[in-house]
Amino acid sequence: MRPALLPEPVGLKFVPLETPPDWDAEFGFTGPLELEIGSGAGGHALEYCRRNPGVRFIAFEWRKKYARDTQMRGEKLGLKNLRVIESDARFVVPRIIAPGTLDCIHLQFPDPWWKRSHAKRAVVQPDFAKLMLGLLKPGGRFDMRTDVQDRGVAMLRILEEAGFHNPLGTGVFHPYDPEEVPSTRERRYLASGEPVYRARLVKPVP
Length: 206
Hints:
Helix 5 crosses helix 6 (149-162). Helix content is 33%, strand content 18%. By secondary structure, the protein is an alpha/beta fold. The chain is globular, with a radius of gyration of 16 Å. The protein has 7 helices and 6 strands, in the order H-E-H-E-H-E-H-E-H-E-H-H-E.
């Protein structure tokens, strides 16, 4: 029997579930490996890759239009360090990323899922937070941003309880850093002055 295969993602061939792909071979060079969960319209992924050509960047987006548009724009820009995967990160990330191999995980403005009955669809759940911690190298970073304060508080608590270290103290959001790369959505908030709740967490070094 042939091994189960992922649905064909954008910019990447079929990947057997039994073993993660060789990212060195896929990108054609070595360097930091970073992941974005929910890249949306691609504003952050594209600009981040442009500014950091030595970073290998895997962007997950389940909406076909956004995923394919981001990959197409990346190709037009000549970005060799971007791969866009059109799939649900919650189910695919554990299959294609080996533990202890990521340098950074980016999660920006995830859907808050307002209805109580939909809360289980939120990306940051205790089990997934522990999984993400395990995928990072010691000292690896988790970059989170949201425009919903209550959701930010909840995510920050879950991540800290999973073992992430908050350099500013438990439950403390981080200030805006002008060196950060904003997403398409965040640029609107920066222009309007609306608040964004940020956290830059770290996996502890043993």
